[in-house]
Design goal:
The chain has 353 residues and is mainly alpha-helical. The chain has one domain: Glycosyltransferase (Alpha/alpha barrel), CATH 1.50.10.20. 46% of the residues lie in helices and 5% in strands.
C-alpha cells in the first residue's frame, strides 16, 4: 500500500496578504466596523469578528493565508522521526481537507480567499466518480484511491461546492465494507490486502451520516471506545485524541447514532488533562478541546485552561509547531498548517461558548 519514498526539501513561499485585501481590509488584526467578518460556530451562533476573534486566531489565520501554496494546497511534511525535526514537503490532499474544515466557521476576506484556492486544488485532484488519492498529481509518488481522503475531501467540498461531488461516490463507499459492515481504507483491488481503521471509519461516517449502510460502522466505533480498545483500532493515526475528534465531529454534524460514544469520550479526554491546561501536545490538546465542544461539554473553566495553554504555545508568526498526526511504517506526517488549523478550530469553539 505505502511505498518507500525519497524526499527533497523545498522552501516555503510567502503570500502577500495586502494584494488580496483592499486598503480598507489590509489587516485582519484590526477589521473596520462596517466590514466585520462573522464567525459561525454551530447552527445558531453568529457573532462579529471583533466579538469573537482573539489576536491569537487572527495571527493564525494570517499564517495560514501567507503559507498556502499558490495553487491552493496546504503543506504536508514527512519525516522518519516522530518529532518531525528533519522533515520534507510531501504533496498530499489530506492536510488541505483538515484546514478547510477547521476554518470553515470563520467568514472573513482572507478565509474566503484561502477556501476558494483550496477548493480549486481539491477539485483538480478529484478523479472518476468523486474519488481521491493521498498523493497529489504534483507528487512523483502514486497510490490507489482510499476512503479516508475521499471522505475528508468530500465533506468539505459538499459544504463549499455541493455540485462538485454530488454524492457520485457514495456507491463506492458502500461497496467497500467488510463482512461486519465496517469500511475498508482502500478502494477496489486493494481490498484484498485491506484494513479497517477506526479513524477512517469515523471520517467516512462524517461524510455519509446516519443511514442503514453506516449503522455497523457506528456500532464498531462505539464498542471500540467503550471497551477501551482505541489504541489498537487505528493503524494510520498516532494518538487516540484524533479518533475522539473524528467521532465527535461526525456526531456534531448530525450522526446521532454515535451518541453512545459521548460519555466515554468525554471521560477519556478529561483523564488526559494535565496541570498546565493541556491534554498532551498542541495537536492533541486541540483535538481534545474540539471533541469536548462537539459533544456539548460545558466545563468552561477546563476549556479556558486549555485555551490559555494553546495561546501560550503559539509562535511569533502565528503558527503552532509541527506535530505528527498520522503515519506509515517508518514515516510520520504533519505540518504547522495542520496543527495551526486545529488549534484555531479549538480556540473558536471555546470563544463561542
Amino acid at each position: 500500500m505505502w511505498q518507500s519514498r525519497r524526499f527533497t526539501c523545498r522552501m516555503k513561499p510567502r503570500g502577500d496578504l495586502d494584494t488580496i485585501l483592499s486598503p480598507e481590509r489590509s489587516s485582519i488584526d484590526d477589521p473596520p466596523e462596517d466590514c466585520c467578518a462573522k464567525l459561525r460556530i454551530g447552527a445558531h451562533t453568529s457573532m462579529t469578528l471583533s466579538e469573537l476573534l482573539s489576536p491569537s486566531v487572527r495571527r493564525g489565520l494570517r499564517f495560514l493565508h501567507e503559507n498556502q501554496l499558490p495553487y491552493g494546497e496546504f503543506r504536508t511534511y514527512a519525516s522518519p522521526s516522530i518529532d518531525l525535526d528533519v522533515a520534507f514537503f510531501d504533496s498530499s490532499v489530506f492536510v488541505t481537507t483538515f484546514v478547510l474544515y477547521s476554518i470553515a466557521g470563520v467568514d472573513s476576506p482572507c478565509t474566503t480567499t484561502m477556501t476558494n484556492k483550496a477548493t480549486s486544488f481539491l477539485t483538480d485532484e478529484m478523479r472518476g466518480p468523486g474519488l481521491f488519492r493521498y498523493y497529489t498529481s504534483k507528487n512523483i509518488r502514486s497510490i490507489g484511491f482510499d476512503l479516508d481522503d475521499t471522505a475528508c475531501a468530500s465533506v468539505v467540498l459538499r459544504r463549499i461546492s455541493p455540485f462538485v461531488v454530488r454524492d457520485r461516490n457514495v456507491e463506492t463507499f458502500i461497496e467497500n465494507r467488510d463482512e461486519a459492515g465496517r469500511f475498508y481504507t482502500w478502494v477496489g483491488d486493494s481490498a484484498l490486502e485491506n484494513d479497517v481503521d477506526s479513524v477512517v471509519n469515523a471520517n467516512v461516517v462524517l461524510y455519509l451520516g446516519d443511514r442503514d449502510e453506516t449503522k455497523s460502522a457506528c456500532r464498531y466505533l462505539i464498542d471500540t471506545i467503550r471497551s477501551g480498545c482505541e489504541s489498537d483500532s487505528h493503524r494510520y493515526y498516532l494518538d487516540d485524541t484524533t479518533l475522539y475528534y473524528a467521532v465527535s465531529r461526525a456526531y456534531a454534524h448530525g450522526t446521532s447514532s454515535l451518541s453512545g460514544a459521548r460519555d466515554a469520550i468525554i471521560e477519556r479526554v478529561l483523564l488526559l488533562g494535565k496541570d498546565d491546561g493541556s491534554f498532551g501536545d498542541e495537536l492533541a490538546t486541540a483535538c481534545a478541546v474540539c471533541s469536548l465542544a462537539n459533544f456539548g461539554y460545558d466545563g468552561l473553566t477546563r476549556l479556558k485552561d486549555a485555551l490559555r495553554y494553546l495561546e501560550g504555545r503559539q509562535r511569533a508568526d502565528g503558527s503552532w509547531r509541527r506535530v505528527a498526526m498520522f503515519q506509515q511504517p517508518g514515516m510520520y506526517y504533519g505540518s504547522e498548517e495542520l496543527t495551526t488549523a486545529l488549534c484555531l478550530e479549538a480556540l473558536t469553539h471555546v470563544a463561542a461558548m
